[in-house]
Design brief:
Blueprint lengths: L1 E5 L13 E5 L4 H16 L9 H5 L5 E6 L5 E9 L2 E6 L3 E6 L2 E6 L7 E3 L12 E8 L4 E20 L2 E14 L4 E9 L5 E6 L8 E7 L3
């Protein structure tokens, strides 16, 4: 289903390239062109804040994400590899996002990237507080083991809509800070009753706006 290839990558859209590329064997040239246009919108903010059309999602027989960077157009990312709980999503040959249980744990191909993530190794110091500390790595800036402390908040039940389908979710907020970088932000997650994250808004690098991701077609 998936083939890999090596080669040089253009820096026309982003400042950081990757050493390889990934694609799906059934993609046509026209698919690649359409994907490229969507990704250009995602990085540069060109165009309106439109969503990936439903018929476009239906035409890709693989698990897919809708990805926005800030208020940009929504771009289509396709599941390339699955290793345990880590899912690697490719946006053409240049961009990649790795998620684990709905959380972004690595990015590649953007101007700045999250290169490493370590979840809390022990329960919160204050039981019931929902306060956890994660460690982030930003290799392109030579910053490693940056402590990011987050406190969870239940924001209530919320019905969301993704490509015309309504989903009942629990809306969870995560107020985070990284004093070492003077960085504070709020992540948001929309989970169904089984705990699956259908939508999220996440900050992963201080220099970038938030990523908003929606699961358009769930991985099996």
């Amino acid at each position: 289903m998936i083939r890999r290839c090596g080669g040089a990558l253009s820096a026309a859209i982003v400042a950081l390239g990757m050493a390889g590329c990934s694609d799906t064997s059934s993609f046509s040239n026209s698919d690649s062109v359409i994907m490229g246009k969507l990704l250009l919108h995602a990085i540069t903010g060109i165009g309106s804040a439109s969503s990936v059309p439903r018929e476009r999602v239906a035409g890709v027989p693989y698990a897919t994400l809708g990805v926005r960077l800030g208020s940009s157009d929504e771009s289509l990312f396709v599941l390339a590899t699955e290793t345990g709980r880590d899912l690697v999503w490719r946006g053409g040959p240049q961009l990649a996002i790795t998620t684990r249980d709905g959380r972004i744990v690595r990015t590649a191909g953007f101007v700045h990237n999250l290169s490493g993530y370590q979840p809390p190794l022990s329960p919160p110091a204050e039981p019931g507080s929902g306060r956890k500390t994660y460690l982030y790595d930003f290799a392109d800036q030579s910053r490693y083991g940056i402590a990011v402390t987050c406190t969870l908040q239940n924001l209530g039940q919320e019905r969301i809509m993704i490509i015309g389908v309504t989903i009942d979710t629990s809306h969870v907020g995560e107020d985070c800070s990284a004093p070492q970088l003077g960085w504070s932000f709020r992540n948001e997650f929309w989970k169904d009753k089984g705990g699956f994250v259908w939508k999220s808004k996440q900050f992963v690098v201080p220099e970038l706006e938030s990523f908003t991701i929606e699961v358009l077609r769930r991985a099996s």
